[in-house]
From TrEMBL:
Keywords tagged on the record: Hydrolase
SUPFAM superfamilies per UniProt: alpha/beta-Hydrolases, Galactose-binding domain-like
Family annotation (InterPro entries): AB_hydrolase_fold, CocE/Ser_esterase, Galactose-bd-like_sf, Xaa-Pro-like_dom, Xaa-Pro_dipept_C, Xaa-Pro_dipeptidyl-ppase/CocE
Protein species of origin: Sediminimonas qiaohouensis
Taxonomy of the source species: Bacteria, Pseudomonadati, Pseudomonadota, Alphaproteobacteria, Rhodobacterales
Source superkingdom: Bacteria
Gene3D superfamilies assigned to the protein according to its UniProt record, in alphabetical order: alpha-amino acid ester hydrolase ( Helical cap domain), alpha/beta hydrolase, Galactose-binding domain-like
Name of protein: CocE/NonD family hydrolase
An annotated Gene Ontology molecular function: dipeptidyl-peptidase activity
Xaa-Pro dipeptidyl-peptidase C-terminal domain mapped to chain residues: 295-538
Region of interest (Disordered), residue spans: 534-563
NCBIfam families from the UniProt entry: CocE_NonD
């Protein structure tokens, strides 16, 4: 596709909106759907595109849906947006993310869609984040009608590459995401849709509401809980054609190249500079005509149109070096493509680790390097998943964190290089504790003195033999470990230096180990390998081009309260460093449904530089849903702390209909830490 393609724009007169549509499940539960149907489909059936989410079709995702589905309807597709059971207006209760019930329901929904008189029997899926996850997971179950899926900002590996754990280390987002889902899933059904029993339906849902951090924290290494629905366990189970999409500013960019390498079904990958958003409306720009890409994919695999443009195996945006900033509106760079992935054109360049810095080539080390960092290192990091809450969550200048870490710099580059893929770091280290972790960051040391974040990797050292087989280390005994950094495409210009920064802490992204860790690194037996794409590759493979981004919303909203965010960093009187993010999502009224929604979030991270057991996180959510005289509000709070042997969690939830309290819940529990890897397998 290119910017000159003239596709049919959305026209609400050509599209019929059906809502609610009730889809029956085998157990009698009904799921609520909103369908955008081309009026011509009653006489000439069309393929259907399903998006299946817990985020509420009539308000939570409506703004995005009113861009996507009228556009697809104008191209001859029925758009079907279904609320997962226990969310929005759907009946039943939600147990966990990607549960067996959720995926079984998804198969039943696909079969129902395929059997409708307005459908040709061919079904595709599209979705970002949760909807990207379950789209790929449902493709792995291979229902007959599911022919294609477009999965955006997703993972194929629920343990190693999701919002819960990274490199075997506990992410603080594990608690923050649980807090967000507690708020999201506690919102009421719409009385206009479900009728006068809405309040009893809501109360039943609230009393059964899970606090999802409990199972997530219980399973601290890769066991059967995480293997279930991790598609990487058996890529060959996927039969549908998969377009895998991500962004370099997003948390899930690794899944795109890994899925391309693993799938045997038709597949194509696309990664832009974006955060956690659809590429036609994402930031940083450039946005692309993503819906045009979706149409071409669905035309080929749902309509069997062999004339539809065929995408290269892997298209990606190579970022240029810019001054680091928390908020980046536009990312300079260029598009590139590889006809196959993994690409034989990409080869590693090795650097040795020495006290004087990074030395070009293997076998140039020989020094002993010491790493022991304060617990507060990490405050310049980007948020684990930028874009889910606000626009100012990218990495700042890394210089303050670099100053507290072990930093090794290369000589100024004689020629610019394109880093494309996942760098790998081999370390021979000697620990002074039985457990802990190492963090490796690659940075662009710019001529102006700033240090721009490129990518990072982290490894729980107890997981050095695999995330399913944790084992403690022996203090004073050397171990060999391999750290794989996150995939990236980044142009490091001539005259810039490559910086490797190593640390044994990374707050507030990663929960501290129980004891402060120090390691000695044997430089002679350590090596950094960085994948480089040759300059000649651009001449051999033309750069991809895209249509203009589709951003016309068929619908609208009124702003009742503007959104705003605030970042507060301070040091308390006892030396504890505190980060507080206050995100007011504003309040809006959707024209199509009349629903008003508003949210306000306060998140806090505390840690003392010398005490990993001082770590504390807290999340406070307020969510408003209403229309006219019907006004509801949920308020929730979650706090997590630790000691040397346990994690401690306390939470509460309160739901109100006007001034009346509908339900109150409270949780309090402690879960043993698996830091030393000596517990029995949690299967």
């Amino acid at each position: 596709m290119n910017a000159h393609d003239n596709l049919t724009p959305p026209d609400e007169t050509e599209c019929e909106i059906l809502d609610p549509v009730w889809i029956p499940m085998p157990d009698g539960t009904r799921l609520a759907a909103r369908i955008w149907l081309p009026r011509s489909a009653h006489d000439a059936p069309v393929p259907a595109v399903l998006e299946y989410l817990p985020y509420r079709r009539r308000d939570g995702t409506l703004a995005r849906d009113e861009i996507t589905y009228p556009w697809l309807a104008a191209q001859g597709y029925a758009g079907v947006r279904v609320d997962i059971r226990g969310n929005g207006d759907s009946e039943g209760l939600m147990e966990d993310e990607y549960s067996e019930a959720e995926l079984a329901d998804g198969e039943a929904v696909i079969a129902w869609i395929a059997a409708q008189p307005w459908c040709t029997g061919a079904v595709g899926m599209i979705g970002i984040s949760w909807g990207g996850f379950n789209g790929l997971q449902l493709a792995a179950r291979a229902p007959e009608a599911l022919k294609a899926a477009i999965t955006i900002c997703f993972t194929d590996d629920r343990y190693a590459d999701d919002i819960h754990y990274m490199g075997g280390c506990l992410l603080t987002e594990n608690m923050m995401w649980s807090s967000q889902m507690l708020s999201y899933s506690s919102r009421p059904p719409d009385p206009v849709v479900v009728g006068p029993d809405w309040r009893e339906m809501w109360r039943s849902r609230l009393h059964a509401q899970p606090l999802l951090i409990e199972p997530w924290l219980t399973h601290q290494h890769r066991d059967a809980y995480w293997r279930r629905a991790s598609v990487c366990e058996d890529f060959n189970s996927v039969k549908a054609a998969i377009m895998a999409v991500g962004g370099w500013a997003d948390a899930y960019s690794n899944a795109v190249p890994r899925t391309l390498a693993g799938l045997s079904s038709p597949a194509s990958g696309l990664v832009g500079p974006w955060a956690h958003k659809y590429p036609n409306t994402a930031w940083p720009s450039p946005q692309i005509g993503f819906l045009s890409e979706c149409k071409a994919w669905f035309d080929r695999y749902l309509k069997d149109d062999t004339t539809a443009p065929e995408a290269p195996a892997y298209r990606f945006f190579i970022k240029n070096s810019i001054a680091p900033s928390r908020e980046v509106a536009a990312q300079p760079g260029r598009w590139a493509a590889e006809p196959a992935w993994p690409s034989p054109r990409i080869v590693p360049r090795d650097w040795s680790l020495a006290s004087g810095g990074l030395r070009d080539g293997a076998g140039q080390g020989g020094d002993v390097l010491v790493v022991a960092t304060p617990q507060t290192l990490g405050h310049t990091a980007q948020r684990f998943c930028p874009g889910m809450r606000s626009l100012d969550e990218l990495a700042a200048d890394q210089t303050p964190d670099d100053a507290a870490a072990l930093t090794l710099d290369s000589a100024p580059l004689r020629e610019g290089v394109d880093i494309v893929g996942a760098a790998r770091l081999r370390l021979r280290l000697t620990p002074d504790q039985r457990s802990g972790f190492v963090v490796a960051r690659l940075c662009d040391l710019r001529p102006d003195g700033t240090s721009a974040f490129i990518t990072m990797g982290v490894l729980n050292l107890a997981h050095r033999a695999g995330h399913d087989a944790p084992a403690p280390m022996e203090p004073g005994a050397p171990v060999d470990v391999d750290v794989t950094l996150n995939d990236i495409a980044y142009h490091l210009p001539k005259g810039h230096r490559l910086r490797l920064s190593l640390s044994t802490s990374y707050w507030p992204m990663i929960w501290p180990s129980a004891q402060p860790l120090g390691v000695s690194i044997d430089g002679e037996n350590s090596l950094l390998s960085v994948p480089l794409r040759p300059e000649s590759a651009d001449a051999d493979t033309p750069a991809p081009s895209f249509a203009a981004p589709e951003q016309q919303r068929v619908g609208g909203q009124d702003t009742l309260r503007p959104d705003q965010s605030e970042r507060i960093e301070e040091v308390l009187s006892n030396g504890t460093r505190r980060l507080r993010l206050i995100t007011d999502g504003g309040k809006q009224r959707h024209h199509a449904t009349g629903i008003e929604i508003g949210r306000h979030v306060t998140e806090t991270w505390d840690v003392h530089p010398d005490d990993p057991l001082s770590a504390r996180t807290e999340a406070h959510w307020i969510y408003q849903v209403g229309r006219g005289d019907w006004q509801t509000r949920t308020e929730s709070n979650t706090v997590m702390t630790c000691d040397a042997t346990h994690f401690h969690v306390r939470a509460w939830l309160k739901a109100l209909d006007g001034a009346d309290v509908v339900a109150e819940r409270a949780w309090s529990f402690s879960i043993p830490r698996d830091d030393l890897g000596h517990e029995d397998d949690a299967d």
